[in-house]
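S1.2 Input.
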Amino acid sequence: MRKNFAKIACLGAASLSLLAGCGVIDQLKEGRGLGKVTESAAADSESAEEEILMEDDFAEIPVSGAWIPDSVEMMNSETEPDQKIRDAIVDYYEVPDEELANTRYYYNHVDLNDDGKDEILVLAVGQYVGGSGGTSALLLNDDMTVRQAFTAFNAPVVISEESTNGYHNLVLERTDGGSSEIVELTASEDGIYENVWDTEKMVDPNELKGTAVICDNMTYDENADVLTLED
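S1.3 Output.
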């Protein structure tokens, strides 16, 4: 079955800037767990104010895709539950039973090296699998084995017409605190892409050609219908 989720509020740029200033973003990049953050109140006040920030707040930050030009075709994720994809996510992240209903997933079939065999790009969203600056993602081979795992991976993702070592480049928005930039991930000869935080390749979106996948609106109202690992 598919689950309905309550409306998720976006974190504003000001809140993210505050977190970056106190080193929270760096902590999350390093994979350290975070239950809550205590932060000082306004600069003109000496009083302190505690703000509770859960890991799943980061996992739910939506990326609008407003940076994608009209020349790029945009596709939502596929809507049919897929047991093999679901099992690959559960096995890789070792998701416990109590977190299955709280973890969403989105996927699209893509042929990254034009060999006639589709890879599957999968986005996993939820407190258990989430992180900072974006969500977690898996690149699956056509036999459902995991080729690569990504962190800080924001959707939508443009499958560029340009290729490196025979594999289409991936273009996405990298976020850190209140700032963001459009970056390009290129693959090695064995089809393994750069990590999001490692790439230094910046892209002018207006020059992009390709197809954007997983273009779903990640801010849901109470009637939203999404795939979960419980499906």
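S1.4 Remarks. The chain is about 15% helix and 30% strand.
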